[in-house]
Amino acid sequence: MYSDSIKRNSKGFDARLIVYYLALVVIGWITIYSTCYLPDAKMAFFDFSQPYGKQLIWIGTSLLIAVAILLIDNKILQHYAYYFYIVCLLLMVLVLFIGTEISGAKAWIKIGEFSIQPTEFMKVATALALAKFFNEGKTSGEKKYIWLIAIGMILVPVLIIMLQHDAGSALVFASFFILFYREGMSAEFLFFCLIAAFLAIFTLKFNETYAVALLTVVFLILFIKDRTQKKKARRDIILYVVSIVFVFSVNILYENVFEPHQKERIDTIMGKTSDPKGADFNLNQSKIAIGSGGFFGKGYLKGTQTKLKFVPEQSTDFIFCAIGEEWGFMGTLVVFALYIALVVRILSLSEKQRTPFARYYGYGIAGIIIFHFFINIGMTCGLVPIIGIPLPFISYGGSSLWAFTTMLFIFIKLNDN
To answer: What is each CA distance from 154 to 141, 148, 158, 187, in whole angstroms?
Structure first.
């Protein structure tokens, strides 16, 4: 009877997604082992005091989570989506009172020797909640509010995360705009979001005075052009005032929300400061590690930058450096190919779903994985500020692996093709 249940529930499971998942997890573990490896030390394979040993525990429990999800009825996943969202929100609020601070962010609940980060599970919960919300099919009278409510569902956890001083995790929630665009959000709204991002970067790069001057020039050009059309002229004035408020808000948030080490990294990326022994040093060592790998790499367990611990957070945020150094361009190309194949497969299957709920959820998690991948790689290469987010399925950490495993296998379960 049990085997019949598994057989019945396993119909439609996508083998490709499971293979991509297992490949990335294995790459992650062997790389974590490499970052801990010492040539002259006797290293027990199951040494649970070491990161690679602990990661084996996380991998084992993640596989159990995956199997459990595959045996759950699809209707349960949809029915309890809002409850999961609320529980994760409550856990995040709880972190503000009893949480443990790590690397400047108070975002972890410590249980013995292990720490759990509720924010990671909040991403899954938000994807499920948004999928259910869009699936409910709003009437024409409510459609004008659908985007405001959806954005509100994202902003609530983002505000709590900002109170935890974890700006990197908060930025991940911007990835849900991929889902919004797919489901009909106005391209004009997305254009304004891009303009806002440009303004924020411009303000941080220079200052409010230059940003206001730029806005004033643009406003005058638009106002002269639209002065004979009262409606457009009124819109230009409103946008100008809102933009000015936004520019000054950027600096206020920057000074009061970001931690000193995060501001230091952003200033370094922006070229505003130089810190050869601090943020610059870490980034330079990261680039050296990746570049020194050449085309085929130095060989497994032979990375000098990795072995001498020059690169910071080698098994977590900067794990890509170890891959680049030991496996070279070809190794990083394999990792790139696996992530691209994974995301493309998710999007392809999402478009084929018979139930809109599965499609909404698929686009939601695809956006999260894309964001994590490109931001993490961008950090190690100096293309974006170092904000501290893990490489999905590869970086060391239980919360991240549990959350991404849950995220992916819920989609595999929902997939009905």
So the answer is: 22, 10, 6, 19
Per-position b or e across 211-233, b if 16+ CB within 10 A of its CB: bbebbeeebeebeeebeeeeeeb
Tens digits of residue pLDDT in 358-381 = 999 999 999 999 999 999 898 888
Same domain as 53, residue 194: no
Domain presence at residue 2: no
Buried b (16+ CB within 10 A) or exposed e, 372-403: bbebbbebbbeebbbbbbbbbbbbbbbbbbbb
Residue 370 has what pLDDT? 94
CB 319 within 8 A of CB 32: yes
309: left (phi > 0), else alpha (psi -120 to 50), else beta?
A: left
Give the CA count within 13 Å in the CB-facing half-sphere of 291: 8
Instruction: Tell me which of 269, 288, 306 is where a domain ends.
Output: 269
Q: Are residues 91 and 123 in the same domain?
A: yes
Handedness of CA 38, 44, 50, 51 (dihedral sign): positive
What is residue 41's three-state secondary structure?
A: coil
> Do residues 96 and 160 touch, judged by C-beta distance below 8 A?
yes
Kindly report the pTM of this predicted structure.
0.83
For the chain, the 3-state helix, strand and coil shares in percent, each to the nearest 5, are 70, 5, 25
